[in-house]
Amino acid sequence: MNILRQRIRRAAALFAVAAGVGAALPAAADDAKQQYFPLATFRVGAYASSGIPVWAGTIDYLRYINEVEGGINGVKLFWDECETEWAVEKGVECYERVKGGKNGSPVPIFLPHGDPITKALTEKSVADKIPLVTIAHGRTEAIDGRVFPYSFPAVFTFWSEASSAINFIAERAGGKDKLKGLKIATVYHDSPYGKETQTPLALLAKTYGFEDIQIPVPHPGNDQSAQWARIRQLKPDWVFLRGWGVMTPVAIKTAAKVGFPVDRIIGGVWSGSEEDVRPAGKVGKGYLAITPFPAGADFEILKKIKEHIVDKGKSDLKDLKSFGSVYYNSGVNEAIIAVEAIRTAQKKFGARPINGEEGQWGLENLNLDDARLKEIGAYGLQQPLKLSVRDHEGGGAGKVLQWDGEAWAIVSDGWVKSDRELLLPLIYERAAAYAKEKRITPRPDPTSN
Amino acid sequence: MAFLIETLIGGLLSGVMYALVAIGFVLIYKASGVFNFAQGAMVLCAALTFVTLRDQGLAFWFAALVTLAIMVVLAIAVERVVLRPLMNQSQITLFMATLGLSFVIEGMSQLVMGASVHELDLGIVDTPVEVGPILVSQFDLVAAAAAGILVLALSVFFNVTRIGISLRAIADDPQAALSIGIRLQRLWRIVWGVAGFVALVAGLLWGSRQGVQFSLTFVVLKALPVLIIGGFTSIAGAIVGGLIVGAADALAEIYVGPLLGGSVSTWFVYVLAVAFLLIRPAGLFGERAIERV
Amino acid sequence: MAAAPFLEVDDIEATYEDVILALRGVSLRVEEGAIVALLGANGAGKTTTLKAISNLLASERGALTRGSVIWKGRSTARLDPAELVARGIVQVLEGRRVFPQLTVEENLLTGGYLRRPSRAEVGNDLARIYTWFPRLKEKRRIRAGLTSGGEQQMIAIGRALMTRPTLVLLDEPSMGLAPIIVQEIFEIIRTLNEDEGVSFLLAEQNAALVLRYADHAYVLETGRLAAAGTAADLAAQGVEALYLGDAPGAAAATSSSAQQF
Amino acid sequence: MSSAETEAAADFVAPGAARDWRGLRRALPLGLLLAVAFVIVPLAGTDYWFNAILIPFLIMALAGLGLNLLMGYAGQASLGTGAFMATGAYATYNLLLRLPDIPLPISLVLGGLIAGAVGVVVGLPSLRIKGFYLLASTLAAQFLLEWIFNQYGWFSNYSTSSSISAPKLAILGQDLSSPVGRYLMTLTAVVAIAAVAARLVKSQTGRAWSAVRDMDTAAAVIGVPVARSKLSAFFVGAAVCGVAGALWAFAYLGTVDARSFGLDRSFQVMFIIIVGGMGSIAGNFIGSAFIVLLPILLSQVSDRLFGGTVDAGQLANLQRIAFGALIIWFLIKEPAGLAALAERGWRRLRPSGTAGPERGSRPGNTGKIF
Amino acid sequence: MSASSAGPILELRDVSLSFKGVKALNALSFAVARGEICALIGPNGAGKSSLLNIINGVYRADEGEVVFDGAPFRRIRPLEAARRGIGRTFQHNALFKRLSVIDNVLAGLTRHSRTTLVEHAFGLPRDLAESRALRARAEDIIEHLELTPHRGTVVSTLPYGVQKRVDLARALVGRPSLLLLDEPMAGMNQDEKRQMSRFVTEANAVLGATVVLIEHDIGVVMDLSHHVVVLDYGRKVGDGTPRQVRNDPDVIAAYLGTVH
């Protein structure tokens, strides 16, 4: 045990050195007047290929706000990066490291950007009063802000994703009544994330009368011959592909191998990026994907970012091919929502760095209507979004993209809405069950009554 | 019935791909007693290097040669920096060192070549061929053929060439090999180099199947049960083990999975492998040492 | 015999794993063309001495901590085993240690690789080995692990001869072999010595046997030199009495052999 | 109790040790350390230190202890650590959920025991196979258990995400959900278990384990029940890992799903004991410090030194390389683990011999297991 | 002891064993009388160690049976053999190399322990009492075999001769009725051999263990043993008192062969 003591002493000394190094660097004197916005990035590890463009999108937008718009109402943003490798405990460590703010500037919003990390932070964030914005991931029942005050699965939950995908199939089939009798197979990543859509799909299948087939693919999914052999046997009309990482290209390739038409596969949000399709090569042509982050560099705001950031060599992106990609745009989207929430909060609390509690208010009063989206230049890139205490999701629609071998083209008729009215009661029920299990008293909704 | 056969064939063809990765392990384990967990990282490194070179516009063969050269340099470095200082250490220590090594290789590869996903097109057509009612993937056939040629080449190498016979000698008795002037360390470098070559082939085939990205390192997980079944020291075992694992995996996914309500392939072949082990404690082809006391 | 020093071992001390002292101040010399015997009981340090000469100690976490080994006027301290083999010293390990999975012929071939010989040379060398050990020719395609103990000893010696050595260090050639086979092997050793001029340093427990073939002999006892002299002198003194009748022994080596009454 | 024996039991306080003068000298630093850990740290620590450093450090050291008992003391290599941790976490969760009247500490212990029982089943192949083959066979358990917890909703009370989350942490009405509370709860569990483990390895059970590890044939021949020893090691090791898993889920993360206890976790724990030192109790803490703290340290140092100037992705890659290289470097430098290194350093610092010859002469290759 | 205490403590009947087709033991039969010291001699590879391995269950005989203490068996588990009172030392060092001398000896007492894991874990009174008792027994043997100065030392760092003594202590501490010693004096110098011979004699005379030992040093064998069995390539070529064996022409032929 002496050894242990000695060891700890040594470790402490090392940390002291590290801290000393930190202290030696001059702290920006006016940090306290700027808005801290820490980023828990993942640039190495298994998911680095998606992380890199995502964070580039976020950082480029933040830089754009700082350099072109002079900050949010004059409050500039500054950030640290902390590498998580998409691993839970590293994510938690990063969160703990940054949650106290920096040099007096508090954390308004935290982007965990990973389903497992989000779950690990759900309760901590309540204790610390730091809102987590988790676009297109996180717990679906966190839509109910009365039970999950600091979780914001904004824009597009997995349930909405499933419902929108079904509605797109209906659109193609010529109406929801045409869903009856269709066979729709869901090929999913066998993980909590992948299984999350089982419940809504079962409900939707019951409602619309299609046949719901669930086919799991074990992590990481680099061999799917058996799954697609089954698809060939079952002959579904559509396949809804909910992959993650390498699973998607392998699925597309294997589908081609067994002769399943690729244009009958609709990928989910995390199966719908260039990084997912490109490795599949030629056979990926015609593949569909539903996403809240439409790809493309033609949106106003992307043009501005290109002009002021990318072309000036200030972009975080090293491989400019990714500019305007789904992941890049998702990063931009997240940053837009965070910035707009801060802006909203500033309206109430003043043009100064805001803290997490104020950030929560900003988010719950966020209203991005078409007019505001046009002002930002994000019309078409970001769907109209109105959040409230009862509704931390807001949008619930996606666009369907089709891969032409080189790039994505939007093929849906605008935003494909989900059947939120149908799903919400079930979601609230689940939130209530969670509250009961955790003995949480839901907070009252100030806007009702 | 046709479906069963089709599944079986598909499984067997996948099995060849697993065997390909397993062979890399067998080579190194045989010659130096190291269970090289960095094999997955080597696969990634080889594929990533190759793709990056191709993206730079190098011709296929030239890129392959340069990659091979890099793998050989890596092998030499590993022997010098890791194996030699750890000579005579326990196998578990060496195993852990290769885990550390895999961090280094992964980090280096991505540091130099980035973490983006690359497409790797080997120009192999991937439309299915119908043989009667049975659908067979052309790509898998080509991959299996490539693996077959590799195994053939390796067995010629091991049975005919000077280096190959020396390597088998080392596997049998390193000290005796040393005593008659076989240069252990040089042969280690060679065998790691050969394992690098195998990693390149595996990397190319797997990479063109799933794209070149970090998750290539996970193919190791499929190779482990192959090794358990086939034994750590037998190339023939790796092939047979690969076929068994591939077939069992595919059949289990179709016929066992639905019974249990989920995908079983993460564990099924491992459980199968343990069952094999209980019957043959040193794998199908592994030699069991008699304990002398 | 010329006075030119062939192999000179001077006052060596060896340890295993930095703890176990296996040799304490052993000195010996082998003249060119001689057969020298190294006698001693089980664990007296014979094997360690041979491995100290062939530089194989390192592979067992052993080390030479004092003294020097001079081969043809040069210290061997910095040479690795392969370089020593290239310079003409080869060791046949105790317990034969053939490569069991390799065929008899492949076993022999491994001995030739260091020189990177041409195909013709290899053929010649093999032919010569087969003339000395005709039995091996019959079994050339059989896996060495399946041959008898005597044949394995022949394989081991043949394999060593494939390196074209000038000095063979032979560790316990009689171990575990029937007397008739032992005699056959020793006859071959004598032939090799006389016809090919190969020198031998033989570690043996069977003193009576080996002294009939050797020119000189050294006797080890618990890692020290206990006696030395010409084979004839030692045989006359009744060397058995020196260490066998109530024999001392030492250290971690594991061999043993037939004992004399 | 003789003085030499006390000394042999030196890693932890043994009853009666204090009577002995030398024992006292050994016990004193440990007592001080515990006092600091229990009194000073809770007063001085920040949330960050508790939540991100101390709690995971302690829990991983505990998991290391579990594996060390199994692998370092009993010689049974296992990569099933993650599965044992998952079993402990899910078992404790279900006990708390379904039998809410049982107090938390008892649920933790019961959860550990259930993990131990699973460990015994996982250990059955060890009666036939050893070495890498055994190591590989434990992977079957690792993957199978991970799958079961993910697959069958019952284990997670049919939560949508198959994840389990911490109940209210309270002992005797004392709320422990604050960072300090969770730290103290973890620390108490770790210290208590480590004390029991220290006893155990010096007992007849521990001797039987070491006998099986060092030479199982000889062990059987002299009358050590080899099969029972192996299985008891699997039981105890898995139980300790199980408690670690439950703490990981409830005291550290709050919410986990089975993937938190995947193969990576198993490897991480194995790193801890190999880097720290197999067959050493203190080694687990050293190894855990290395594995848990080093990456954080690397990331903090490099952020401070290069943050903003070097590309963040490259920096992350460099950290990974540095981490891998350090592992190799330490293995080369001290294959018996940092505990042995530290022990040597300690002796050098205090040459006047609290350490008798028996502790002084531990051989260098103690890391060998197969 | 069983009813058969008048008969031989150990009897081998037509025991055969082969490894991969090579016969290590060939229809071997002999008996060891209660209370004697019996030496097995023969060249290396004669099958002596294999024989001991069959007697205490490490190997299984292909044919024939072993009768120990009146109970016949062909295959016995090593643990069961130990329980019945067969102790054993090893030719190559088979000590628990990371444990100290006292711990090695204490491990030899495992089968005399009656306490459970739980008692060990929490240091319950029964465990404390028992470990005191066991420790006393171990200390006794250690003192007896003059290992006291080494009692706390990790065995792998001890000189070879001392390790051999630890091996003997570990076997003796369990009070075996039959003690199998595999080359207990290999690698020892004259003094050590004399000392070891004394210990073996004492184990036999004082502790009452029947001893079967393998030894190459004929001088030692002749002084020490009451009974000598000569093996050669798996066969028995001689069996009798030292004097008888010394003068047996078959033994002389098999051993000295054509050499002399």
Keywords:
heteropentamer, A: 449 residues, Rossmann fold, 3 domains, eight-stranded mixed beta sheet, two-stranded parallel ribbon, 15 helices, 16 strands, 12% strand, globular, D: mainly alpha, disordered N terminus
Describe the model.
The complex is a heteropentamer of chains A (449), B (293), C (261), D (370) and E (260). Chain A has 15 helices and 16 strands. Helix content of chain A is 43%, strand content 12%. Chain A starts with a helix and ends in a 12-residue tail after the last helix. Chain A has 3 domains: 1-29; 33-156 and 296-387, Rossmann fold, CATH 3.40.50.2300; 159-291, Response regulator (Rossmann fold, 3-Layer(aba) Sandwich). In chain A, strands 7, 8, 9, 10, 11, 14, 15 and 16 form an 8-stranded mixed beta sheet that branches. In chain A, α2 crosses α12, α3 runs parallel beside α4 and α12 packs across α13 (356-364). The longest helix of chain A is centred in the C-terminal third of the chain and has 24 residues, at 326-349. Chain D is 71% helix and 2% strand. Mean pLDDT of chain D is 83; it is low at 1-19 and 351-368. In chain D, α4 runs parallel beside α6 (131-151). In chain D, β2 and β3 (174-175) form a beta hairpin. Chain D has a domain at 18-260. Chain E folds into 2 domains: 1-85 and 178-188 and 211-260, Rossmann fold (3-Layer(aba) Sandwich); 91-175, Rossmann fold, CATH 3.40.50. Chain E has a 6-stranded mixed beta sheet, with helices on both faces. In chain E, strands 2-1-4-5 form a 4-stranded antiparallel beta sheet, covered by helices on one side. Chain E is globular and about 60 Å long. The model of chain E is unreliable at 256-260 (pLDDT under 50). The chains are: A alpha/beta (449), B mainly alpha (293), C alpha/beta (261), D mainly alpha (370), E alpha/beta (260). Chains in contact: A-B, A-D, B-C, B-D, B-E, C-D, C-E, D-E. Chain D binds chain E through residues 4-5, 7-8, 14-15, 196, 199-200, 203-208, 210-211, 213-215, 217-226, 232, 236, 279, 356-358, 361-363, 366, and chain E through 56-58, 77-79, 81-83, 87-88, 90, 94-100, 102-103, 106-111, 113, 115, 117, 120-123, 127, 130-131, 134-135, 151-154, 156-157, 170-171, 174. Chain E: GO terms for molecular function: ATP binding; ATP hydrolysis activity. Chain E: Residues 10-258 form the ABC transporter domain. Chain E: Keywords: ATP-binding, Nucleotide-binding, Transport. Chain E: InterPro entries: AAA+_ATPase (IPR003593), ABC_AA/LPS_Transport (IPR051120), ABC_transporter-like_ATP-bd (IPR003439), BCA_ABC_TP_C (IPR032823), P-loop_NTPase (IPR027417).
